[in-house]
Structure formats: structure tokens, C-alpha cells
Design brief:
The chain is mainly α and about 220 residues long. It has one domain (about 1-220). It is built from 8 helices and no strands. It has helices at about 1-30, 35-45, 50-60, 75-105, 115-150, 155-165, 175-195, 200-220.
Length: about 220
């Protein structure tokens, strides 16, 4: 009975995340651009949480204890350091290695920021919104439900990463799906294999990773 329940909750949570993503896309397309700069910045930080709304509601309503969502108050400095270091290493390997090998066009995400405040906001946005939401949903809710259903860590890692990759099909293409699936696997391995890596670490790692991709693209491909 619990297995069927967890399958249903996982499916509902994932579909809810997709619906939330669609809502974010629609808001950004038809509302966000009409707002003043300050309003756009605030809305970007808030609206992205629509993606996590259904999974969080399901956790609350079902009264589930999701161990992977637990935040620890111990050694916060180390948790942050693991996140920053992990994000820096993964982003550098993903971007700089292909770039210096002559394949930079394959990792260029098109960002061309020039102002310091833009980079500062991107860092906050990627940690507080993107990193927090996607890690809570995929390395938290989805992973924990899969682990409960299959009782196998590796199946849970690969399955949650595939779902993470497919999630990005709404805003990308099949190549991005494959790349984000691989990134999802790496994030999972860091979360569950690196000693001292907590959900806070992973949120920071995810945010730093995304931010550095933007930073590298803006600096190395500046026209």
C-alpha cells in the first residue's frame, strides 16, 4: 500500500512541477517583461517557487518526513564551502575544458551580462530560486519517493536524474535534456557520496554552477 501511495505522490509531484514550470514560462512571457526592473527581479525570485508548490503541498498534506530535505545547523560554514567548491569544480570542468579544446560554442548559454549588479542578482537568483527549488524537488522529493518505491539507491539516482533532464525539455531541447540528466547524476553523487554534503550544500552548489556558466559565457564570449 505504501509503495503504491509513494508512486502516486511522486507522479503527482512531478506533474505538479511540470505545471509549475509551465506557469513560470507563461508568466515570464506575458507578464514579467511589462514590469519595472525592481518588480521583475522580485518576481523572478518568487514566481520560480511555483515549480516546488505541488511537491511541498504533498509533503505537508501527506505528513511525510523527507530526510533528504532536512537542513542541518551543524558546521554551516563547511556546508557552504562544499557547495561553493563543488559548484566551481563542476562548472569549470563542464565549461572551461570544452572551451579551451575549441568546442566553446557547445557550452555557450548565450548570456552577455556586463554590469556587476547583473552578476550579483544572477548569483542570488540561481541560489535562492533555481537551486533551492530544483534541488528540493528532484534531489529531495522525487529522489526520496523513488528510493521508497525501489529501495535501491542507484535506481533512484538514475531515475530522478532522467526526470530532472526531461523537466528541462520544456525550456530546451534533447541535447539539453541529455546534459542536464548527466548533471543530475553528478549532483546526486555529490549529495549522497560526499561526506558533509547537505541539502544546503547542494542548493549552493547548484546555484554556483549555474552562475559560473553565465559568468564564463558573458566574459569569454563577449562581443
Amino acid at each position: 500500500m505504501n509503495r503504491k501511495r509513494d508512486i502516486c505522490l511522486m507522479i503527482l509531484g512531478y506533474v505538479g512541477a511540470l505545471a509549475g514550470c509551465f506557469g513560470v514560462i507563461m508568466f515570464n512571457s506575458y507578464v514579467l517583461t511589462s514590469l519595472p526592473l525592481a518588480g521583475r527581479m522580485i518576481c523572478m525570485l518568487i514566481v520560480y517557487w511555483l515549480i516546488a508548490l505541488v511537491p511541498l503541498v504533498l509533503i505537508f498534506v501527506s505528513k511525510d518526513k523527507i530526510d533528504t530535505l532536512t537542513f542541518s545547523r551543524e558546521k554551516i560554514g563547511m556546508q557552504i564551502l562544499i557547495g561553493v567548491a563543488g559548484g566551481s569544480v563542476i562548472a569549470s570542468a563542464y565549461f572551461l575544458v570544452p572551451y579551451f579544446m575549441g568546442f566553446g560554442s557547445y557550452v555557450d548559454n548565450g548570456s552577455r551580462f556586463t554590469q556587476l549588479w547583473q552578476f550579483a542578482f544572477e548569483l542570488v537568483y540561481f541560489i535562492v530560486a533555481v537551486g533551492a527549488v530544483e534541488e528540493i524537488v528532484f534531489r529531495g522529493f522525487v529522489y526520496s519517493k523513488l528510493k521508497s518505491v525501489f529501495s535501491n539507491e542507484w535506481i533512484s539516482i538514475f531515475a530522478s536524474s532522467i526526470l530532472f533532464g526531461l523537466f528541462h525539455l520544456m525550456i530546451g531541447n534533447i541535447v539539453q535534456v541529455c546534459l542536464t540528466t548527466i548533471i543530475g547524476i553528478i549532483f546526486c553523487l555529490v549529495r549522497y557520496k560526499v561526506k558533509g554534503c547537505t541539502m544546503l550544500s547542494l542548493i549552493i552548489l547548484h546555484g554556483v554552477y549555474d552562475f559560473l556558466i553565465v559568468l564564463y559565457s558573458s566574459l569569454l564570449f563577449r562581443v
